[in-house]
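Below is a filled-in request sheet from our internal design queue. Each sheet records the structural input a requester submitted and the sequence that came back. We keep these sheets so that new team members can see what a complete request looks like end to end.

REQUESTER: design group, bay 2
PRIORITY: normal
MODE: inverse folding
CHAIN LENGTH: 168
BACKBONE (tokenized):
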């Protein structure tokens, strides 16, 4: 069986700098996938830039906000979050002209047991692989930033290979 490595960059659409960094990382060969925040200020630019790199996999990076337009953290009310998630899915399709390749969430809010059923329903409905709920193994430790500091030494192929070897 052949194995593939997917290196995903979240927050596509959050800023012009992130957009350009994701495109550059893909063009240089390290980034194979990204996750688009469909309701972010620079999501239209991100969608346009993605057309210049057709081999870049683009998934939906759901950014779920509560009634006060803050990241979801408080009690989940009714089907509002379900509607918001489906709305972001439709916005993604409008921007990209196709469905996402995968589903994940900003700050991993899909892990919240009150939100998880909505994410799983959407993933099943559209047959989308979802972070931590698909056959694809997810390595959460590969960020290159923690404790408020950047650790650029971690963001190298050799470091990633070492990490994968110790996890397997």
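RETURNED SEQUENCE:
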């Amino acid at each position: 069986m052949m194995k593939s490595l997917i290196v995903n960059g979240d927050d596509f659409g959050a800023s012009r700098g992130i957009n350009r960094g994701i495109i550059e990382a893909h063009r240089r060969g390290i980034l194979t996938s990204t996750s688009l925040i469909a309701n972010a200020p620079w999501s239209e630019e991100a969608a346009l830039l993605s057309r210049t790199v057709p081999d870049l996999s683009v998934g939906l990076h759901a950014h779920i906000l509560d009634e006060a337009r803050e990241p979801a953290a408080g009690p989940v009310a009714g089907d509002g979050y379900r509607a918001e998630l489906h709305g972001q899915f439709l916005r993604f399709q409008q921007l990209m002209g196709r469905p996402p390749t995968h589903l994940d969430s900003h700050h991993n809010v899909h892990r919240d047991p009150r939100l998880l059923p909505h994410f799983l329903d959407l993933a099943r409905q559209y047959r989308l692989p979802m972070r931590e709920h698909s056959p694809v193994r997810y390595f959460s430790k590969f960020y290159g930033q923690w404790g408020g500091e950047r650790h650029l030494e971690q963001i190298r192929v050799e470091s990633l290979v070492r990490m994968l070897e110790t996890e397997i």
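SHEET NOTES:
- Residues 80-96 form the longest helix (17 residues).
- The mean pLDDT is 80.
FILED BY: M.R.
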